[in-house]
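User: Please run a holo structure prediction.
Assistant: Happy to. Please share the sequence and the ligand.
User: Here you go; the ligand is fructose -6-phosphate.
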Amino acid sequence: MCGIVGYVGSSNSLGVLLGGLRRLEYRGYDSAGIAIIDPAGALHTRKRAGKLQILIDDLETTPIASGLTGIGHTRWATHGGPNDENAHPHLGDDGKLALIHNGIIENFAELKRELLESHPDTVFTSETDTEVAAILVGLEYRRTGDLAEAFRHVVARLHGAFTLLALHKDEPGVVVGARRNSPLVIGLGNGENFLGSDVAAFVEHTRRAMEIGQDQIVTIRADSVTVTDFDGVPAHGKEYEVLWDASAAEKGGWSSFMAKEISEEPDAIAKTLLGRVVDGAVHLEELEPLADALAEIDRIVILGCGTAAYSGMLAKYAIEKWTRIPVDVELSHEFRYRDPILNARTLVLSVSQSGETMDTLMAVKYAVANGARTLSICNTQGATIPRESDAVIYTHAGPEVAVASTKAFVAQVAAFYLFGLHLAATRGTLSASEITGLLDELQALPAQLEEVLEQHDAIKQLAGWMTDTRAVLFLGRHAGYPVALEGALKLKELAYIHAEGFAAGELKHGPIALIEAGQPVFVVVPSPRGENSLHPKVISNIQEIRARGARILAIAEKGDASVLPYADVVIPIPLASTLFEPLLAVAPLQIFAMELAAAKGLDVDQPRNLAKSVTVE
Ligand code: F6R
C-alpha cells in the first residue's frame, strides 16, 4: 500500500521519481505526487488524484522546475478519500518541508489534538494522518535545524506502522527516511542514492541495494548513506545485489502485466526448483539455521492471506501426507487474536509474495514472541517477513507487478512441496525412491503447464461469451478445493463478478440452493486414475447440479471421457497425480478471470480498491 521513492544525485530527479513511481504503482493508484528541491533551494510540489498518468499529463502541460533532490508517492487511501488534498506529499506548516508516508499512524488524532493545543493556528489542509507527521517534523526542524534529528523526535511519538520520507528546502541534497513495520530499501548508486518501498523503485539505475532494519532512520545524500536507530545510534544495513534486472518488471509486448506473468508460470516453477533438486533429492541449504528445530517439531501452522493462504491449503494436503506432521492453515489476520497455542515444537510457516503483508508480518512477530520457530516462503529478496523469520525459502518467480497474484502462487506451491519433501526425507516418512518420483512429477510441471497455456485463446473466447454473467460458482474437492477458492477470488477481484468457491461435498449442505437454470459452475475434476480417486464423487456432484440447470465448465484430465456427457465445456489439462494437478488447473481459471475482465473493459493490472502489497492491518 502506497509506493515511495526518494532520490539525491546528479540526474534530474523528476525522471527518476516518475520512473520509480511507474514501477511502484501496483502498490496503490488512488493518487500520486512529487516534491523536488531546485538548485536555487526552492521546494516544488505537485500532486493529483487518480492514476499516475494523470500526474504525468499534468506535469507535461505545466512543467515543474528541475532539481537533483526529490521524493515521490503513489497512494492507496486510508485516512481521507482519494482527492488532490489528501494526496502526498504533505507540507510542514511553513511550507519548507515535504513529507510522504506509507502505513497508518494510529495515534494521529491524539497528536493532532495536542498540536492544536500547543499551536492553535495550525491549519490542516487534508484529512490524512500524514499531514500531522509533516507538521510535527516541520516544527522539530525549526527547533533543531537538522532533518534527521527532527525525524528522531517525531518518530518516537508515532504509534502504528509507517515509512516516512521527507526533504527540507534548507537542507537541499538530503532525503531522510524512517521505517517501522513498513518497507523501505536503499539503492546505492555512483554519485547518487535512492530510497524505495521496494527495489523496483530504482532497479533501472542500480542493482546494489541495502536493507534498513526495523525502527531505523536513513539519510541519503549524493555521496553518502547514513543509518541510525531511532535513538541516533549508528547502524549498518546488509548490502545485497538485486537478482532481477529492470526488464523483468516491464510489460514487454504483453497486453497486461497479468498476461505476461501467467505466461511466466512455467518459468516461475522451474526457477524455484533450480539448484534445489540434485540427484533425485531435495537440497535446501537455507534450512540450515532450522535444522535442529525441524527434527523436533510436532506441528506446523501455515499463515498467509488471500492467494498465498490458498497455496498454504494445498501445502497442508501435501505436507501431512508426506510427513505425517499435523498442519493447520490460518489466515494471518485471524491468528494472533485468538490466543493460539504455540511452543518451540511448533513451526510457523508463513507465505507471502511481497514479504511485507502487515497481517502476516504481525502474525510472524507474534509467533516469534510466543516461542514458535519460524520459516517463511517469500518472493521478495530482503523483505521484512523473511528478515523476522528464522529462515526463508525464496520463490524465484521474479517481480510480480499485476495486483492479482498468479505466477507467485504456483511458485509458492512448488516451494512448499520442496519443503515437504525435505522434511519427509529427514524424518524418513518417505523412501528415497518415493521422493525421487515426486520430484520428477514436480520437475515435469513447467512443460505440462506450457501445454495448458496453449489453450489461452479458447479460454478467452469462453470469457468473451460470458461478459453478462452475474455470478459464477467454483467447485473442487481435496486438492481441487483451494483451486476453486482461488478461481473465485480471481474472478471477484478482476471482473467484479460475484463468485464463490465451494468444496463440492458441501453443496448439498446449503449452497446447492443457489443453482438455477443457466448458472455457470466451474468444476475442478480430479484425475480418474489412482487409488481413492474422488473422481466418481465429483461426477455425482456435477450430475446433482446439472439436474438443477447448472451450466458445467469442467477442468478435467485430458482423455477423461466420463466427464463429457455432463459438461457444457471441458478444458483439458495434462495427466498429473492428485497433488500436482492443482498447479495445472489454476491457470485456466486465472486466464478466464483476466480475459473476462478485459472483455468488460476493466483494468486487469490495477483492479479497483486494491493494492498489491497490503501493508496496513
Ligand atoms: C489475490 C492477491 C492477494 C494476495 C494477498 C497476500 O490475487 O494477490 O490475495 O495473495 O494479499 O499477499 P502476499 O502474498 O504479498 O502476502
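The mean pLDDT is 95.
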